[in-house]
Amino acid sequence: MSEEKQIDSTEEIVREFLLNNPDFLDHNPDILESLSLPHNSGSAVSLVERQVGVMRDRNKEMRSRLDNMLATAHDNDLLFEKTKRLVLNLLEVKNLPAMVETIYDSLGKDFAIDFYSLTLLGDEKTLPRTMARVASTEKANEQVSTLLGSNRAVCGVLREEEMTFLFGEKGLQVGSVAAVPLRYDNLYGILAVGNADPNFYKSSMGTLFLSYIAEVVNRILPRHLS
């Protein structure tokens, strides 16, 4: 059967179905909204047809916005659950090594972040051995003074020496960063996450969950440093 005959056959089936089910479009308004129903007004476009076209476009735009809102809400729900698990696990840790391991395990496995680091300010000889990076306050001020001086999370592309300070040798693979200073009564360090894509972390993006995690760490960290 040729393609033209197949089309004719399909049209005949649709025609017969609609004739036998005259209320079909009443029960399926979503199909009616997508149909083009021009009025016989010659070369001029009728006002009704124009209004229907505008309403159809607005309907598509509203559906697109709703889909985006639902997708964002779903993503936020997942982030909330992961953050809650991390916070509850942090409340149960008994020492600094366990705390750092809990943070790294959550960021790497649960959040599936490519690059992450916790940098503690202090003397490596006096602090317990952990997976965290350790640097003196003087060294940190030389390398990442802008980050240390901020009172909120900083996102974007950093200098090569700043990337290396935060992530070590892996810093050369990091394209963009979201970093937040750990500060409560004192300055304790920096929590940072990174991505190979230079455009992944931008200054315009929200950092609610990272900032919240940092706030929790700020409250728990001092008891394990003393």
Structure keywords:
5 strands, elongated
CATH architecture of one domain: 2-Layer Sandwich
* Rg for CA atoms: 29 Å
Task: Report the CATH C-level class of one domain.
Answer: Alpha Beta
Q: Which strand order does the major sheet show?
A: 2-1-5-4-3
Order of helix and strand elements from N to C terminus: HHHHHEEHEHEEH
Tell me about the largest β-sheet: 5 strands, mixed
In short:
The protein has 8 helices and 5 strands. It is of the alpha+beta class. It has a domain of 131 residues: Beta-Lactamase (2-Layer Sandwich), CATH 3.30.450.40.
Question: SSE layout and pairings?
Answer:
Blueprint: H1 3-20, H2 24-27, H3 29-34, H4 47-92, H5 96-110, E1 115-121, E2 133-135, H6 137-149, E3 154-156, H7 160-167, E4 176-183, E5 187-195, H8 208-225
Parallel strand pairs: 1-2
Antiparallel strand pairs: 1-5, 3-4, 4-5
Helix pairs in contact: 4-5, 4-8
